[in-house]
């Protein structure tokens, strides 16, 4: 003779009761995963067993007179579940919370240092500025040739399907910069030296006049362009790029400060990112009217 528990439509919970105890009820147990109405043994689920005991103890009110359909307990309106019982919970209690989509999701962006091969892409990005404030193609080529390590770009690569070739990445935002010995951005630092292809950077002359363009010995990084193409403005690309750039310079410990120019309506954007407003700038590039801003955190280790 074999012993064991066979599937039953009703499972009886027995206990010692006195005459004042409520009558015992039988509890049908159904499979939560298959959706079948066939009964299963209560031993298959610890949660089901606890539920059966709770109903037998009179903690859960399923009486026909409960017209509101609300389950009431003597204590709280919830049941504590042990860690070991998590596997018995319904699948929808364990679904991860999906992150909220952002405007950047469609771009699949990545950050990369620029090179002279990106000059035409940078010319396109510079179209975000008014024409009289744009960096010329020759200046872009000069900066990407002499100091490409001071540049940074955000590229976008569209999502590809399994049948497509890897799509070409598109430059959507960039930072272009040079070094200067001056404590802030100057007209000289924004200049283009003559015969720059044959000449290296030079030291200030005897009169202390700053040479044009990039100066290897400069302790200030002068950001001359932070631009985002018009169709992707308003998505936080500029903020993302500048924060990544500042952190990169700080981690590399290659300069004392980062300086840039801004029109008055954009000053709060930069001050919120840790730049100090040093007041009106003497730079006349693009018609003047600029404000000088400098990073408030020293990038060189103390």
What's this, in brief?
The protein has 302 residues and is α+β, with helices and mostly antiparallel strands.
Question: What is the fold's blueprint, element by element?
Answer:
Layout: H1 46-56, E1 109-112, H2 119-125, H3 137-146, E2 152-156, E3 170-180, E4 220-228, H4 237-252, E5 257-262, H5 267-271, E6 275-280, E7 291-295
Parallel strand pairs: 4-5
Antiparallel strand pairs: 1-2, 2-3, 3-4, 5-7, 6-7
Helix pairs in contact: 2-3
Keywords: Acyltransferase, Transferase
GO molecular function, one term: aralkylamine N-acetyltransferase activity
Protein name: N-acetyltransferase domain-containing protein
Structural notes for this entry:
The chain folds into two domains: 42-93, no CATH class; 109-295, Gcn5-related N-acetyltransferase (GNAT) (Aminopeptidase, 3-Layer(aba) Sandwich). The protein is 16% helix and 15% strand. The protein has five helices and seven strands, in the order αβααβββαβαββ. The protein has a seven-stranded mixed sheet with strand order 1-2-3-4-5-7-6, sandwiched between helices. Strand 4 (220-228), helix 4 (237-252) and strand 5 (257-262) form a beta-alpha-beta unit. Helix 2 (119-125) crosses helix 3.
Notable traits:
single chain, 302 residues, alpha+beta, Aminopeptidase, seven-stranded mixed sheet, 5 helices, 7 strands, disordered N terminus, transferase
